């Protein structure tokens, strides 16, 4: 069974997720956001097998360098956003100077691809390319737990007015990919509270 802890990090309250399997000393992190102090304290003594990125906007990668340097773990990102890690202009951190300084890190070690299966912490994660909020946005499914990044929120959807965003792609990602999962699938979004696929299909005003 996957053990999931969430941390609301940085000025945009981005959800970072710490995932552990049966071995509680080994973990995976999804989206280490800005101001990662609480996350860094929590992972003291843990072995981090990997950092998985749903996408590379600054608020989702703000703590990437600190975690990576502390734990020496590899990073996975979709190749459409590989350059975003190294380029503040692409990851959006130059657009809001009142919110963040320039964000940049070293390149990722591994690319992500549609349908890819990655075994970490004794669990299998399947990668789904879910563009719209950004061109390289992905979602990760592990059992009945779905990490949707900024594609789908509780009673909301990701914005599409940032560079590389596309509304038609977003709705296709939600209706054509995420809404095909069982209703009981638990959704862990990039911001805000968790939800389920069934709840969003029945209640989300943007895609109902």
TrEMBL record:
| Entry keywords, A to Z | Hydrolase, Metal-binding, Zinc
What reaction is this protein's catalytic activity? Answer: 3',5'-cyclic CMP + H2O = CMP + H(+); 3',5'-cyclic UMP + H2O = UMP + H(+)
Domain Metallo-beta-lactamase per the UniProt entry, residue ranges: 13-191
What cofactors does the UniProt entry give for this protein?
Answer: Zn(2+)
Record's superkingdom?
A: Bacteria
Q: Which one of the record's GO molecular function terms can you name?
A: hydrolase activity
InterPro entries per record: MBL_Glyoxalase_II, Metallo-B-lactamas, RibonucZ/Hydroxyglut_hydro
Q: One Pfam family for this entry, by name?
A: Lactamase_B
Q: What does this protein do?
A: Counteracts the endogenous Pycsar antiviral defense system. Phosphodiesterase that enables metal-dependent hydrolysis of host cyclic nucleotide Pycsar defense signals such as cCMP and cUMP.
Q: What is this protein called?
A: Glyoxylase-like metal-dependent hydrolase (Beta-lactamase superfamily II)
